[in-house]
Amino acid sequence: MRTTVGIIGAGPAGLLLARLLHNAGIDAVVLESRDRAYVERRQRAGILEQGTADVLRAAGAGERMDREGLRHDGIELRFDRRRHRVDFPALTGGRSVTVYAQTEVCKDLIALQLQGGGPLLFEAEALAVEDAGTDAPRIRFRHEGREDVLECAYVVGCDGFWGVARKAIPAGLARVFERTYPFGWLGILADVPPSNDELVYARHDRGFALLSMRSPAVSRLYLQVPDGTDAETWSDEAIWDELERRFETDDDWRLERGPITQKSVTPMRSYVHEPMRHGRVFLAGDAAHIVPPTGAKGLNLAVGDVVTFARALTHRQETGSPQLLDAYSATCLRRVWQAERFSYDMTALLHRAPAATAFEDRLQLARLERIASSRAAETDLAEAYTGFPFG
Questions:
Q1: For the segment 239-271, what is each residue's pLDDT rounded down to a tens digit?
Q2: Burial of 230 (0-12, 13-18, 19+ CB in 10 A)
Q3: How much is the pTM?
């Protein structure tokens, strides 16, 4: 099997890259280790930055997103029983975000790929990337019970933190930067309309809480819990009681309860692998970097990576110049580190560390007061949340 670009992973990054390359007339093959049903129900991110939504529209994958997605023009910060709304369009020149689940993005892109794109092989497990430092890298994979080889001009690893693509970069060339956090998020899906029209980020002495949504009828909520927490140790009633405590305000706002359909705990970490390229092997998304979910940046960073690669390869095909491909890692990492910075800042702003002192508690409140009272501070948050430019 031979192609120009071998893409490992059919998450939103790999699928979007295949679509961008197809639209540019560049052939690609996507290998995905899971079956289609798994990919289309895998729960992940749900906040699309302005730039991500615009890219999906331009790629021809925005019709259902625009019909069913929820445009949000702000978020609410909640602290000290107070509520403060951050108005995105007023602070950013009109930018917003869209609530549209990653599962739905994948469904849209899979449908497009199967209708007229290049090969998309499900249950095709990538075993190794070989000859990364040459002009002809290869992906060895297993599909339908037998091993095969995909010969490529380029390989893009969109295969997540545990994938094989990153292993193709020699350890002697790599630098890893990471931080683990002593808490995680207990997340629930509940069959109840969201209790607020926009996301609520709550800082409370008992810990952080987030009110989000998947649709007008389904709420997605999170609680900060100690690292290693088992979701099943929390009863449904205890979860709702704790959410009520952490969202408490001095006005008449109230949290609506409903049947909880899913519970899980997400660990929190920051991770960056440098470089994001070796030879003709390129890393994108979680294969190269992970952010804590507080800043809603994971999916959007992956989109930025594949947009950067698609532009660079198109430039190479049209002009013969490898300049943009050579700059891929440095270009992506500038955006990655800004997102890492913002995600870390949001996490430190809103979560209570297990050994936090009264002094640190007051500093958190002072930072939140600054955002609520300073247009400059509020603008910095709004610009970062709605998205850093691609490239």
A1: 999 999 999 999 999 999 999 999 999 999 999
A2: exposed
A3: 0.95
